[in-house]
Amino acid sequence: MPANGPELRDIHVPHVSMWWPLAPGWWLLLALLLAAAIALTVFLRRRAAWRRFVDASLADLRTATARHAEDGDTLAFAATASQLVRRVARFRDPRSATLSGAAWRQALAAIAPDRDVSRLAALDEAKYRPVADIDVRETAAAVEAWVRKALARRRSHVAA
User: Which residue did the predictor score with more confidence, 15 or 34?
Assistant: First the structure.
């Protein structure tokens, strides 16, 4: 080395942690992951709340079925089941609150199109008869299936 030139020293790279500070791409990825976790949490909580709503709606039906097993009062079961069907139908289609007969049957079929509504429509008549001749077990199953279908999240409202 010539003695008259500048004196050069070795280059020393400062110590930088491998994990910190993160590059902007990592910050973006972390933000996206956080947003996805929040969205998933909100989705799962809403779904759980909706399922609790459906189960709470069916609680009266289960109670009426159990009460019928104890006392055999078919009229009380028919009244409770009919009230549940009316309540769910009114929730899905407010215009159905005043319907009866064939119009009521059509409204039930429109709310849950792939379900047989003959037992549900028969409930409306059975609750006013002196003796209700309905099969409680099958009627309860039909009402529960219809309610679950009517309260499915995919359909928010009945088409006008």
Answer: 34
Are residues 99 and 80 in contact, defined by beta-carbon separation less than 8 angstroms?
A: no
Instruction: Write down the pTM of the prediction.
Output: 0.72
Taking alpha carbons only, the member of 43, 92, 94, 83 closest to residue 59 is 83
CB atoms under 10 Å from CB of 110, counted, come to 15
Count how many Cα atoms sit within 13 Å of the Cα of residue 151 in the half-sphere of its side chain. 24
User: For the chain, which residues make up each domain, given as ranges?
Assistant: 35-150
pLDDT one-digit tens code per residue, 67-93? 999 998 899 999 999 999 999 999 998
Closest CA to 77 of 147, 118, 131, 151: 131
The string of pLDDT tens digits covering residues 145-159 is 999 999 986 544 444
Distance CA 137, CA 151 (A): 21
- The pair of structure tokens assigned to 94 is 């407010």
